[in-house]
Every structure is written in structure tokens, then in C-alpha cells.
Design a protein that fits this description.
This protein is about 45% helix and about 5% strand. By secondary structure, the chain is mostly helical. The protein has a two-stranded antiparallel ribbon. Strands 3-4 form a two-stranded antiparallel sheet. Strand 3 (about 205-210) and strand 4 (about 215-220) form a beta hairpin. Helix 4 (about 55-70) crosses helix 6 (about 100-115), helix 4 (about 55-70) runs parallel beside helix 9 (about 145-160) and helix 7 (about 120-130) crosses helix 8 (about 135-145). It is globular, with a radius of gyration of 27 Å.
Length: about 220
């Protein structure tokens, strides 16, 4: 698989799982279990201050909100006349609907604090949705023995799936920022410029000297009045 192709391949596999296209085999994680240095900002926010104290509950609960809802769950604009949980429809665990992502987040955090083994179920369902290879035994071991590393890995996977710029900046799976030659908005480069030859200006003509060096010749038009 070429560098940077894992994200696109996973997106196609997730569509195929919903019935759109040919099904594919499970894929590896975009980042390793201990590859927490690939996103130092997330690592810092999850292990410092008040968030660091609650990281074992807050981070998995937030990831679960992302998992159950669409990309705009934290920025969704609602009609002021329709603010009920049934109208907004932001899902929390057990398919409970809420009027905001914050309430869904608190609901997930409360369930996790009351029943910690639910983390194993969350990781298993996460793998199934994102078509990640693994086993139930591996889910249990990673969720218990490497709790924080597993939570960070799942949140990184959500960002990889939803933010192509994050993938390019962090160089995940060998991806790189687009250049002017492969970006969709790039203009066609003149052939002379690509060959390293200077481009002639309007009103000038290009010719080569005896030594083969390109020089410009200005064409002057004289009007006799």
C-alpha cells in the first residue's frame, strides 16, 4: 500500500461495510498503540491539569461522542425553535438523544465511571466501524493494561478519518502536504518554466544564441505619423 493511502482505503472500506461497494479485509490502525508522540498536543491536553486527572474518563467519553455522531457534532447549529433532544438528536451511549454534545459527553462519562468494563465494548465497536483488524482479547488487554494509550489511539483514529490536513501535517502513514503539482487547485505550469527556461514577456520573442543560451529579443513597433 503506498504512503498516505491508508486513510482513503479505510474510507472506502467503511462505505463498503454500509453496503456501498466491495467489502475489504480489516486494515491496521493508522497509528500504533504506543505512537502517542505522533500527536503531542492531544497527549499534553490528556495528561495535564484538570483534564489529566480525569483523562481516564473524559477522553474515552469524548471519543464515544465523536464515534456515535457526524463530523459537525461539536459545531452543529440548531434551530432556536427546535431545541429538544428529539429534534437535535445528538446521540450518547445506549442511543440516548441529547440537545447538545456536552450533555452526551457527560452521559458517556457517567456510564464509564459507573461501569468501567464498558471500555472494552467501546473499543470493540470502534474497531468494527473503522474496519480495524484485531481480536476481542486484544481489545480487553489494551483497554485494561494500556488504558490511556488505547484511548489516545482511538481519538487519533477519529482525527485521521475526519481531518486530512491533520494526516498531512503529522505525516501519518507517510502522507505529506500537497504541492502545487498534485493539488486540485493548481494551475498548469508553462512548458518553458518546467524546462528551466525563462518565460518571455508580452512583446518579446525568444531565441537562442550560438552557445545555446536563451536570450530575449524585444520587438519594437514604430508608428510613422
Amino acid at each position: 500500500m503506498p504512503n498516505g493511502a491508508l486513510r482513503e482505503t479505510r474510507a472506502n472500506a467503511m462505505k463498503a461495510k454500509l453496503g456501498y461497494g466491495k467489502k475489504s479485509d480489516p486494515l491496521p490502525w493508522s497509528t500504533g498503540l504506543c505512537d502517542f508522540w505522533s500527536d503531542p498536543e492531544l497527549l499534553y491536553m490528556s495528561t495535564h491539569g484538570i483534564c489529566g486527572v480525569c483523562c481516564f474518563v473524559c477522553l474515552p467519553a469524548k471519543t464515544r461522542v465523536d464515534f456515535l455522531n457526524s463530523d459537525d457534532v461539536w459545531t452543529r447549529k440548531t434551530d432556536p425553535r427546535r431545541t429538544s433532544a428529539a429534534d437535535v438528536g445528538i446521540l450518547g451511549e445506549c442511543n440516548v438523544k441529547f440537545s447538545s454534545a456536552s450533555w452526551a459527553y457527560l452521559w458517556n462519562a457517567s456510564l464509564l465511571a459507573a461501569f468501567p468494563p464498558i471500555r472494552c465494548w467501546w473499543r470493540w465497536s470502534f474497531r468494527k466501524k473503522y474496519v480495524v483488524k484485531g481480536t476481542i482479547v486484544g481489545d480487553v488487554l489494551s483497554s485494561t493494561c494500556c488504558y490511556l494509550c488505547a484511548a489516545l489511539q482511538e481519538q487519533r483514529e477519529v482525527r485521521v478519518a475526519r481531518d486530512p490536513l491533520f494526516v498531512a501535517v503529522k505525516k501519518i502513514d507517510g502522507a505529506a502536504l500537497p504541492t502545487t503539482f498534485n493539488a486540485t487547485y493548481s494551475a498548469e505550469v508553462p512548458k518553458q518554466q518546467m524546462m528551466g527556461k525563462p518565460q518571455s514577456k508580452p512583446g518579446t520573442a525568444m531565441k537562442e544564441s550560438a552557445g545555446g543560451t536563451p536570450v530575449s529579443e524585444v520587438v519594437v513597433v514604430k508608428n510613422d505619423d
